[in-house]
User: Fold this.
Amino acid sequence: MRTLLQRVSQASVTIDGAVRDRISQGLLIFVGIETADDLSDVQWLVRKIINMRIFNDEAGKMNLSVKDIHGQILVISQFTLHASAKKGNRPSFIKAARPDIAIPLYETFIRYLNQEIDYVGSGQFGADMKVSLINDGPVTIWLDTKE
Assistant:
């Protein structure tokens, strides 16, 4: 699994012209699932994300986690995180999991985050989504369970 975390002061996702979900301070997480992913990838990512100290403490140092600050999370599925652009100019998405594998892992990822964080919102798997955010910092972090 691959995630792109963005520390945000706010974020929202719009589908078909209607805001589906929005958060205030916390994390916007783009998540891509590949065929080889399983429950252990979900568990590792959730532990890593909720405990990652990327929020500022009183001294302005990154010492606090999203859990520490009672932040919110917005999860957006994004198969394009598994794009391979090694050959030619059109990316290949061959490593991205098909919906029958990806959807259950995506839903499990959200469910596990919900057990740890007060509010977890999400987009809609496979939908054409418009994502808006104010990146705080900016702080953007890439995590890949295979690396």
